[in-house]
Known about the structure:
Structural class: mainly alpha
Radius of gyration: 17 Å
Mean pLDDT: 89
Amino acid sequence: MVVQFPLASVCHRKSYQWLVVCTVCVGAFMAALDASIINIALPVMKRDFHTHMRVIEWVSLSYILTLAALMVPFSRLSDMLGRRWMYSTGFVVFIIGSFFCGWAPAMWVLFASRIVQAVGAAMLQANSVAIVTEATPACDRGKAIGIQASAQGIGLSLGPLIGGALITWFGWQAIFYVNVPVGAVGAL
């Protein structure tokens, strides 16, 4: 038995387009949140890794630079291979990177994991607007893209707040571990 995704029973529902928009919003929110959530954790990570700020700031910079460098190539690759595959893979890569960021016993593991996380985020970001555009009819497209853009903006603005709470209650590792269950929901 071959199962095709999305399932035909889901595809033909009237609310299908909004399910797609919500799924894309999860990815857009997570990728944007991780761009800003790290900033509040840098001083704590600096202390825990016994390093200088000029070194630890690369945890943030490596994510942003990798994300920016891979957006266009992943957009083109998804044109060739398919957006759904690229988006789902992006969730998985992002989850793996997030897990290893939280687990990182050494700086080099954190840097490498942060780059993996950014690769997943680039796969998500490169496809989000295109997926929303394909899934929504022209009459709802502006609203759907606005909702997706709002998810990114909310993720960026809530990063420091959520990061501060997670660091205070659970430690800096929690800012990465929180992505695992959220990403799993988005991937499913």
